[in-house]
Amino acid sequence: MVQRYLSLSSLRKARLSILVFTASIVFFTIFLCIGGLLVCQAYVNCDPFSAKLIEQDDQIFPIYVIQTVGNLPGMPGLFVAGVFGAALSSLSTVLNSTALVIMADIVKNVIKVELSPKTANRLVKGSGILRVATSLTNSVCSHSVCYYQEFCMYCTTKE
Q: What transmembrane ranges does the database entry give (predicted)?
């Protein structure tokens, strides 16, 4: 967020962007609360988890979408596109802010190296590829570590 404020030309524009951001968050929170109330009202007499319609609690909103607008062509796909769009937007923000921290705080302030724009661009892209590779490795290795920890627990217990 700070990088967005720093990119604006004046303090007045930064304050205005904070005001717009705050109003958007309030509107979005109200919108989410209304969505939650609609789902709660739809399943007030029937729990989809107990009825075995869903297996996990976080599947309640997708099943609500399927049951209410699933008969309209394209609506479930629009819902999925919205979820993916929100996830990619958040991922983009994280990658962008991490790149800024690497360039502004580590390279310029700690290492104190002045890079050409071409080299800085390569460094940012390389660090982005490294972050994606690290997250993919973590998602694969977390299961291996979990199995290893469980195996070690049984191996070290005394009977």
A: 16-44, 78-102
From the list 34, 42, 88, 32, the residue with the least C-alpha distance to 65 is 42
Q: How far is CA 152 from the centre of its chain?
A: 33
Q: How many CB atoms lie within 10 A of CB 99?
A: 19
* pLDDT digits 0-9 by tens, 47-73: 888 888 889 888 888 899 999 999 999
Q: How many CA atoms lie less than 13 Å away from 77 in the CB half-sphere?
A: 3
116 vs 3, 120, 124, CA distance in Å?
21, 6, 12
Q: Which two tokens stand for residue 136?
A: 């993919």
pTM of the model: 0.57
Alpha-carbon gap, residue 45 to 139, rounded angstroms:
38
